[in-house]
Specification:
three-stranded antiparallel β-sheet; Killer Toxin P4, Chain A; 12 helices; five-stranded antiparallel β-sheet; Transferase(Phosphotransferase), domain 1; membrane; alpha+beta
Length: 461
């Protein structure tokens, strides 16, 4: 991964030559790297170092380095040496700045920072709070050790708002460990304005911590399914949320990733109500030319999982297309697919309800009353039509995200007539009973959630 190199702010004028500054900088970094990567008798490697270096007659330059503890001291030194090389190649003479890689961090400045330099002693990592102590001031980072503590402190000092997500140790340790690694590796590689940015992570014993950018407006479901707050989502905001989700799924992901848990609670909203996709713990990265995969452990959320995945553990990019279609219908209607709605005297789920509206040629009855009358009827009807194409039962019938992009951005494209949706309530039958066709001898672990409640079961067939 390419290093991140950042200049913090305007540089002051100091009366030293470029050569003198670089010599002082190099001497400082040699000491702090040695401090971070060596171990004194009877103690472990600290993985961090902080010091100051005299600069001219009246100034000092302050430096701090640290590595994550999941690498060896030699790898730590190699990583920090690469940051030094970055300074030499791009930043010689820069009087304050940051260079960082996923496993190591370096900062230098003409002024003290992080509170590290009182009496030239680098502090020990922040201790965890006492049990039962819930009074933690806003902006104070507790219970996190290693480089992440100082990265968080630095970001807070620069006015960057953060979301710190602690993933507790679970009994299914191997599975939760894999989900954590998935999330870190995928989000670190993916870059898109409609993704929540991962700023750092920590691995300490059984505890796992992720640090994301702070997204102030919580999640889509916080507004969409609330009887009062939903009125804040007019049609233009809802349409922008639909297209924002589609833009990530379609064009700017550099890897072929199946999210496997697209749902309203995993769509976060920034200050302008733009969507940002979160929670890649269940995501899978496909290899080149791979189109689908199978699993014996079905994980996801009821209402958003396509029938071929629930029934046979088969997933592909068309799985996310199905989930996206459900989201379109939920965003327009303000209703959950996993809830039930009365139509023709019977209870139906949302996709069945919309399918009945399609057959009755009354699609606009889906529109959330909170939207009011201020919307483009043709635009809304086209979005519902696209949503129905996405939730068709047969994955081969569902459009690709590239085709969906064209459908949403080019109104001259004629849309096909949709086939019945997956998990469609036919009269007198449960959609789950119709969709589940697991083979006689298969054993499948089924872990899903409905309205944030977790369900896990293992059923021999």
């Amino acid at each position: 991964m390419e290093p991140v190199i950042q200049s913090l702010e305007a540089e002051p004028v100091i009366q030293v030559t470029l050569s003198d500054f670089d010599n002082a900088w190099e001497a400082l970094m040699r000491r702090v790297i040695a401090e971070a990567t060596s171990s004194s008798s009877g103690s472990n490697t600290m993985y961090y170092g902080a010091d100051r270096q005299q600069l001219g007659t009246s100034r000092s330059i302050y430096g701090f380095v640290q590595c994550s503890k999941d690498i060896s001291p030699s790898k730590c030194e190699q990583c920090l040496r690469k940051n030094v090389d970055d300074y030499r190649s791009c930043c010689s003479g820069r009087q304050r700045g940051i260079t960082e890689r996923p496993s190591c961090f370096m900062r230098w400045d003409l002024d003290p920072f992080f509170g590290l330099f009182e009496d030239n002693i680098a502090p020990a990592p922040t201790p965890p709070p006492e049990k039962g102590d819930r009074k933690i001031p806003i902006g104070v980072v507790v219970g996190i050790t290693g480089v992440l503590t100082f990265v968080i402190s630095m970001l807070l000092s620069l006015g960057v708002a953060l979301c710190i997500r602690r993933k507790a140790h679970q009994e299914n340790g191997n599975e939760s460990e894999q989900e954590f690694k998935n999330e870190v590796l995928l989000v670190a590689k993916l870059q898109h304005r409609n993704l929540v940015r991962l700023l750092g992570f920590s691995v300490e014993g059984a505890e796992r911590i992720l640090v994301y950018e702070f997204v102030p407006n919580k999640s889509l479901n916080y507004f969409l399914f609330d009887p009062v707050k939903r009125s804040q989502l007019d049609w233009r905001k809802r349409y922008n949320i639909i297209t924002g989700i589609m833009l990530y799924l379609h064009q700017d992901s550099r890897l072929t990733v199946v999210h496997r848990d697209l749902k309203a609670s995993n769509i976060l909203l920034d200050v302008d109500m733009n969507p940002k996709i979160a929670d890649f713990g269940l995501a899978r990265n496909f290899r080149m030319n791979q189109t689908e995969a199978n699993t014996g452990r079905v994980v996801g959320t009821v209402g958003y999982m396509p029938p071929e995945y629930v029934a046979n553990g088969q997933f592909s990019m068309k799985s996310d297309v199905y989930s996206f279609g459900v989201l379109i219908l939920e965003i327009i209607g303000g209703k959950k697919n996993s809830s039930f709605h009365k139509i023709d005297g019977s209870l139906r789920n949302l996709v069945t309800y919309v399918w009945r509206l399609w057959n009755n040629e009354s699609l606009l009855e889906l529109v959330d009353p909170a939207v009011g009358e201020n919307y483009d009827k043709h635009e809304v009807t086209r979005c519902i039509h696209i949503g129905l194409l996405c939730v068709q039962e047969n994955p081969a019938d569902r459009p690709t995200m590239s085709t969906i992009f064209q459908m949403l951005t080019n109104t001259s494209i004629t849309l096909h007539v949709p086939q019945p949706p997956g998990f469609f309530f036919r009269d007198g039958a449960s959609p789950l009973a119709e969709g589940l066709t697991i083979g006689q001898s298969s054993i499948m672990s089924f872990a899903c959630s409905v309205d944030d409640a977790s369900i896990t079961s293992v059923n021999p067939r």
